[in-house]
Amino acid sequence: MQLALYNGLLYLGGPLLRRHLKKRLASGKEDPDRFQERKGHAALPRPEGPLIWIHAASVGESVSALTLIHGLLEKVPERHVLVTTGTRTSAAIMTARLPAGAVHQYVPLDMKRAVCRFLDHWRPDLAIWMESEIWPNLIMQSGKRHIPMIMVNARITEKSFEVWRKSFGLSRTLLRNFDFCSAQSELSADRLRQLGASPVECLGNLKFAAEPLPVDTTALEIMQKAVGGRPLWLAASTHRGEEAHILTAHQQLSEKRPNILTLIAPRHPERGEEIAALFAEAGLKPARRSLEQVVTDETAVYVADTIGELGLFYRLSEIVFIGGSLVPNGGQNPLEAARLGCALLHGPHMDNFADVMTVFSDFDAAMEVDDAAALAEAVAHLVGQPAERDEMAARAAKVVATGQETLTRTLAAIEGLLARRRDENS
Known about the structure:
Blueprint: H1 2-12, H2 14-26, H3 35-38, E1 51-55, H4 59-75, E2 80-85, H5 88-97, E3 102-106, H6 112-122, E4 126-130, H7 136-144, E5 149-154, H8 158-165, H9 170-175, E6 180-183, H10 186-195, E7 200-202, H11 217-227, E8 232-238, H12 243-256, E9 261-266, H13 272-281, E10 286-288, E11 301-303, H14 310-316, E12 319-322, H15 335-339, E13 343-346, H16 354-362, E14 366-368, H17 372-384, H18 386-400, H19 403-425
Parallel strand pairs: 1-2, 1-4, 2-3, 4-5, 5-6, 6-7, 8-9, 8-12, 9-11, 10-11, 12-13, 13-14
């Protein structure tokens, strides 16, 4: 009944959905060259042999999946892995970083026809859902085809939990299709059980096991030479409304350190022009990486408005502010910066990473700042106290080092399910 209502609403809302998709195409949020994939039309043939399908919503989930993909392919080299995501940024990163034996496609829209086309073409032997990306038609149609399904690294926020609790049993209908769920925390595990998932175990956070972000060493050397000995800091994965705080912090920092260089890597690189204009209007000289502008002595802010280069800027910057946290966006992933030896700062809005931040807090491995003034003060302090900065970064690195056990246990759970299914079918 609930699924019929869901599909009925999708049908009635068809004109609005098509208008929304046209807007996304016009704004560059959808890939026009690969948009047919969103309708379930495959751009690639299905490879021969076993195929494991991993669905990851966006950048964070797909990067977390990379270590899992490597582990699955190392275990059985003749396997193939299909990775689906829904954003252009994640598609670009996956295209660049997937190993041999793995391919990327855009996830189909959760319309029954698109989903059926997708599943009929790819015929996966196992489906792995990263975190808690729940699409009813994709789940139910996979279940009807008896595709084994695992939810990995599941995270259920309080807001999501309350929404699904009021779904009139839809959560139970969907979650019973999963053979196994592994949660990032005991809290998420308990919420999954209440919503109808079984069995559920807490295997830890797979994001702690992610590989270090890659870097073009030549590009890094060029940036290091351009920066010289200037003190600098990075505001990573920032959101609209946050750059105004960073501008204020930069202005306050400049009073004590006139040669401070602020780097900004926006969460959405297409906002580079907007961010550069904000600083220019304040009388500061910006430079944009997407325009191949270089850092000079006059450059006050460098806007890293490209895709897939955070690994470069984390290695360049020893002090990193995690974006999406001074505005109520839930924060971005702090683990990538911690893995590369950065001292971490963040705002009060890290709700999307509450479990992770609890661990960082326990180890005194990150510092919270509530506004632009506190951000400027924290950056100034860490610039002036390199030993303290290095100790803080080392504590953060110890936190992320715990991820290998989670990866091992997750791979064992996946291989165990595949072995049981083989025994049942033999």
